[in-house]
Design a protein that fits this description.
Elements: E1 2-6, E2 16-20, E3 30-39, H1 42-50, E4 68-74, E5 86-89, E6 119-123, E7 127-129, H2 136-140, H3 143-154, E8 164-168, H4 172-183, E9 187-192, H5 195-204, E10 208-211, H6 218-225, E11 231-236, H7 242-249, E12 250-258, H8 271-277, E13 280-283, H9 289-301, E14 308-313, H10 317-325, E15 332-336
Parallel strand pairs: 8-9, 8-11, 9-10, 11-12, 12-13, 14-15
Antiparallel strand pairs: 1-2, 3-4, 3-6, 3-15, 4-5, 5-7
Helix pairs in contact: 3-4, 3-9, 6-7
């Protein structure tokens, strides 16, 4: 079989290496998956281009944490899935539920072999069934983005119908957070940089959209849109000084879920601003298999579909990374592994 491997941390986007190796076989309570599709996340840019990532990355590991496919073979003792099932993989295979910890931090496409491969062996506990209405490509867009969005929205306490949620930009996590929050009965305010993107966000269910280029003090505008009270949740992407504005937009007793660091603009956190906000600031490390399962159940119940910006073939992995790195995609960048 063929797989794309990480040659070195920070080696550049073209440092992925295509290798041939024997198809792995499942051991006890493991499952062999024929991978049909994978998708890209910002973590790949951080690992390959910038050479920084908060969790260990093993040189030579198979790349990418997202993937979906078909169960082909079962190891001894497998009970949760059957041959022929359509499944997606949780990016933290050994984080089943509960709080995150170092003992649960092994991650696909990092310290563990990932999903940019024709076949993968995974623990049965790491698999979540794909909703019937989704294609393999759509399912491959979910594991990292959907579980991160769900954790940011409901990881500390349930999202209540009637709450107001603020999502930033049009990255994959923000788009799924918008859809999941809307499905839960929340009102969503989104930020963006263009009229075209604003229209698309409204089509997805955003009640209001604030253009942060036209309105640099968008935190105050969000607070005005909530009658001065602020929003109960912020899905914060951590880029270019957004945290200060999110702190001005969040309600007393609300929460800011920090899902990543897209830029260096928030390298200094103003502790006084955090205290004055009266809100909680919580780092969101993707999520557990149980949280992914919860997000996927909501997606199945409401027949939600993640947006796919563009698809590439398996042999076009380097081109997919280069295109994704341009940062213009509205939705996920998917790589089709199987024809």
């Amino acid at each position: 079989m063929k797989s794309w491997h990480l040659s070195a941390l920070g080696g550049g986007l073209d440092s992925l290496q295509l290798r041939h190796r024997e198809t792995p076989q499942p051991g006890p309570r493991e499952v062999l998956i024929r991978v049909v599709a994978t998708s890209l996340n910002y973590r790949e840019i951080a690992i390959l281009k910038h050479g920084r990532y908060p969790l260990p990355v093993r040189p030579g590991a198979v790349a990418l944490c997202d993937g979906a496919g078909e169960v082909m073979a079962l190891g001894d003792g497998v009970q949760r899935v059957r041959t022929g099932d359509r499944v997606m993989a949780s990016i933290f295979p050994y984080w089943q539920d509960g709080p995150f910890g170092v003992d649960r931090a092994a991650q696909l496409g990092g310290s563990l072999d990932g999903m940019l491969t024709e076949y993968a062996v995974l623990p049965e506990e790491a698999l979540v069934t794909i909703p019937a209405h989704l294609s393999f490509e759509e399912a491959a867009a979910l594991p990292c983005a959907a579980v991160t969005a769900w954790n940011a929205l409901a990881g500390s306490r349930p999202l209540v119908a009637g709450d107001t949620v603020l999502t930033l930009g049009s990255g994959a996590v923000s788009l799924l957070a918008l859809m999941l929050a809307k499905a839960a009965g929340a009102r969503v305010i989104a930020t963006t940089s263009s009229a075209d993107k604003a229209n698309r966000l409204r089509e997805l269910g955003a009640a209001e959209v604030v253009n942060y280029r036209d309105t640099p003090d968008w935190g105050a505008e969000v607070r005005r849109l909530t009658g001065g009270s602020g929003v109960q949740r912020v899905v914060e992407v951590g880029g270019g000084g957004t945290l200060a504005q999110s702190l001005s937009a969040v309600a007393i007793g609300g929460e800011i879920g920090l899902i990543g660091t897209m830029a260096a603009g928030d390298s200094m956190i103003d502790a006084n601003a955090v205290f004055r906000s009266g809100a909680a600031l919580r780092a969101v490390a993707a999520g557990s298999t149980a949280q992914l399962d919860s997000a996927v159940r909501v997606i199945g119940l409401h027949r939600l579909r993640p947006l796919i910006a563009r698809e590439f073939g398996f042999d076009e992995a380097l081109a997919a990374l280069a295109w994704y790195a341009e940062g213009q995609a509205f939705g996920k960048t998917v790589i089709r592994v199987a024809a």
